[in-house]
Amino acid sequence: MQILPFYMVCDESGSMAGTGVDAINSALPDLHQEISTNPSVADKTRFALIGFSTQASVLQPLADLSELTQLPSLSAGGVTSFGAAFTLLKDTIEKDVTALKGEGHDVYRPVVFFLSDGNPTDNGWRTALKELNAFRYAPKIIAFGISDADAAIITEVANFKAFIQQDASITPAVALREFASSLTRSIVSSATSMAAQGGDGFQLQVDEQVPGFTSLSLDKL
């Protein structure tokens, strides 16, 4: 079977306390419902949730969402270690892809939806990102920045698409729900594309525009 793994990598630092993590936590059941009740989507995709602050942790190991009753919640505290997130992501993807291949699946390049509301507090994050982008199962990274996130850093993290919340008329909470909705649409559309193409000529489907966000160019140096 063809499998497309998705990883939602969320900032859980102290600045996400309150409305930040609440908005993500309230959006996760919708994401779960949308995908788990659509057999053709659940069959072709797998979903994992990683949270990061001072450390990073796998909150939901990669799974078929139709086999889960619910997704775990995020909680906020600590600083913003991008390096911890990228290092854990690399190790997790390596194990997951190896396991899926071992089960006889054809595995597509993993997709990461990365979200932060601030700037990295660790010095070594670029090295960890470089290692993530250089290894054999390097993922496609779609990065979203809200609140105090720096557009230049968000474009550095992304290698596929990048978005920044620059619309002052919407709150971070609304932006976070749009982030979760965009991830959900990408999973559904990509799985539908896989089914239609039979795997050949499949292209990852990601929103060109996300309400409340500005799309950032990855081609500017």
Question: Main traits of this protein?
Answer:
221 residues; alpha/beta; eight-stranded mixed sheet; 8 strands
Can you put this structure into words, describing what you see?
The chain is an alpha/beta fold. Helix content is 40%, strand content 22%. The longest helix has 26 residues, at 172-197. The radius of gyration is 16 Å and the shape is globular. The model has no long low-confidence stretch (mean pLDDT 93).
Q: Count every beta strand, where a strand is a DSSP E run of 2 or more residues.
A: 8
| Major sheet | 8 strands, mixed
Mean pLDDT: 93
Secondary structure class reads alpha/beta
The topology string of helices and strands comes to EHHEEHEEHEHEHE
- Low-confidence segments, given as residue ranges, are none
Give the helix level as a range of percent.
25-40%
Shape: globular
Question: What kind of assembly state do the chains in view correspond to?
Answer: single chain
Radius of gyration of CA atoms, rounded to a whole number: 16 Å
Give the amount of beta strand, in percent.
15-25%
